[in-house]
Design a protein that fits this description.
Elements: E1 4-6, E2 11-13, H1 14-23, E3 26-28, E4 40-44, E5 50-53, H2 55-59, H3 80-89, E6 92-94, E7 108-110, E8 116-117, H4 121-125, H5 148-160, H6 168-173, H7 176-179, E9 182-185, E10 191-194, H8 200-204, E11 210-214, E12 226-230, H9 233-242, E13 251-254, H10 260-269, E14 274-278, H11 281-294, E15 299-302, E16 314-322, H12 328-331, E17 338-343, E18 346-352, E19 358-362, E20 382-384, H13 401-406, H14 410-419, E21 424-430, E22 433-439, E23 445-449, E24 454-457, H15 462-472, E25 484-488, E26 494-498, E27 500-507
Parallel strand pairs: 13-14, 13-16, 14-15, 16-17, 20-21
Antiparallel strand pairs: 1-2, 3-4, 4-5, 6-7, 7-8, 9-10, 11-12, 17-18, 18-19, 19-25, 21-22, 22-23, 23-24, 25-26, 26-27
Helix pairs in contact: 14-15
Length: about 500
């Protein structure tokens, strides 16, 4: 509830306290207590420095030395909608747009007697009323009740951002529920959650990935799999922070989806800086309609974004999983352009050199995929009973017992997801003995027996890749992903390396 307190001169409302702090170029970080002599937590809107000052100090002209408003310039940040709401609550109907300053005269008509008056918004807040209008001159106007979705947005912003974070205000403002009227959960069979369900808003504004669409059932089964997902808000916040976004940049958001990422970008940088694209025309059109209804109008395009038609300063692809970075992102971007995208099971931050080349480093961010389908069974252990063709001398050069029993270490698994996109690492038994089989979408197969015998067929020798990675990578589950990097050459070859470019792991395909 908004409070009012009495200073030496007059009653001061919480609205006026908030406006006084904003006018000084600061942002209030806690509710106004009603005591002008009590220190409040606030941060500078320009440099994000946190301060503890009293309202009396603010009224006497104190402001942060780094703020743009510190040189005597004051900021009046009352929106036209809020000003109209305050005038309506005081019994006035605006006859012209809000003049923009709380001290400027404003042509208003009394709703009770019809007379024209010209009070300022500051006069209205002092409870100066038309004599035929409201007569309550002492009690402060009650604040509008906070909606449930607003409470969830504020809680989410506080959970994933620190005080002074430039993204906090955008997360607090963007109504995610208007962009995602339905999502899916899977406590058993997939369930669609919509607004009438009590779980809708808590799940929608939770820090978890969302499934927003399901694909058709798999052949011979009624089970469906997610066809469209959005990353968790904390992961999205980390990606947008890593992109070093700023005003006056042209930003391309790849994978429109529900439009939440585009809305955050519009909220912070303006619609003229944001272009969003999706390969599905229906998804793009639906997102454009919902964004427009929410008040955001970015440029919405359809089709592949592998070769952008116009150069962009920043490219963000949070939801699209890639096996390589498209060459067009480096040939059609200026020098210094930053690209943030999902590659394999990690996220990479690449910098374009402006000539088709670039360098990239992986971020310390881990994709959190939606909860697995509880109806899906784990892969069965295949028992291969027929003899396997064995070439003379086909023996593993690395120990295989732990790899067969426990699978690859986390660092090797991360590198394998990049070196062998779409591969499957599956335990099998050969004539009753434990073994290991690796397959890739191009029908290459490697089977490794417990005695180290290796049987391979297909276009690629998969076990060679495993042996190479095993020798170069540390057997440390805590090895950081930030040690991995990629070099993009003028002939569009992309090479994965570890720690230094001379420690080459493989070429990405």
């Amino acid at each position: 509830m908004l409070t009012a307190t009495t200073t030496r001169s007059r009653t001061l409302t919480a609205y006026e306290a908030e406006d006084a702090v904003r006018a000084a170029g600061l942002v209030l970080m806690e509710p106004y207590s009603g005591w002008p002599t009590r220190r409040l937590r606030m941060c500078c809107a320009t440099c994000s420095t946190e301060h503890r000052r009293t309202l009396i100090q603010i009224q006497q002209g104190w402001t942060c030395p780094h703020t743009l408003h510190g040189a005597g310039m004051r900021m009046d940040s009352v929106s036209a909608q809020r000003a109209a709401a305050e005038a309506g609550a005081a019994g006035y109907q605006p006859q012209e747009p809000y003049p923009g300053r709380t001290t400027d005269p404003w042509r208003l008509r009394c709703t009770m007697c019809g007379q024209l008056r010209t009070p300022s918004l500051k006069d209205i807040r002092r409870r100066e009323r038309c004599q035929h209008g409201h007569t309550n001159r002492t009690a402060p106007e009650p604040p509008p009740p906070m909606s449930e979705d607003t409470r969830h947005r504020l809680a989410l912003a506080r959970q994933i951002t620190a005080p002074g974070d430039p993204w906090r205000a955008a997360i607090e403002q963007v109504p995610r529920h208007l962009l995602t009227p339905a999502h899916y959960i899977n406590p058993g069979p997939w369930q669609q959650i919509t607004a009438p369900d009590r779980r809708y808003l808590p799940l929608l504004y939770a820090d978890r990935p969302l499934v927003t669409a399901l694909g058709p059932p798999t052949p011979g089964s009624t089970r469906r799999h997610p066809s469209a997902t959005t990353p968790s808000p904390s992961l999205l916040h980390g990606l947008l922070s890593a992109a070093d976004l700023d005003v006056d940049q042209q930003i391309l958001d790849i994978g429109t989806g529900c439009g939440y990422t585009a809305a955050l970008l519009c909220e912070r940088f303006g619609e003229g800086s944001v272009t969003t694209t999706d390969t599905d025309p229906h998804t793009a059109a639906l997102a454009a309609c919902r964004l427009a209804a929410t008040g955001y109008h970015p440029r919405v395009q359809t089709g592949s974004a592998a070769a952008p038609a116009t150069p962009y300063d920043r490219i963000v692809a949070p939801a699209t999983s890639l096996s390589t970075l498209p060459a067009g992102w480096f040939t059609r971007t200026p020098r210094g352009a930053v690209i943030v995208a999902r590659l394999g099971t990690g996220y990479v931050r690449a910098v374009s050199h402006g000539d088709g080349t670039g360098t990239a480093r992986f971020l310390d961010l881990h994709p959190a995929d939606p909860d697995p389908d509880p109806g899906a069974r784990p892969p069965a252990v295949i028992d291969v009973r027929r003899p396997l063709p064995v070439s003379p001398g086909a023996t593993s050069s690395i120990p295989v017992e732990d790899l067969i029993a426990h699978g690859p270490p986390p660092t090797m698994k991360f590198a394998l997801d990049l070196a062998l996109p779409g591969h499957r690492w599956q335990p099998v038994t050969v004539n009753g003995a434990p073994a290991l089989r690796i397959t890739t979408p191009d029908q290459s197969v490697a089977t490794v027996l417990a005695d180290g015998t290796v049987c391979q067929r297909g276009r690629r020798r998969l076990w060679r890749t495993v042996e190479h990675l095993h020798r170069l990578l540390p057997d440390d589950p805590a090895a950081p992903r930030t040690a991995f990097g990629i070099t993009i050459t003028p002939d569009h070859r992309q090479t994965l390396w570890y720690e230094t470019e001379s420690r080459t792991l493989c070429a990405l395909t």
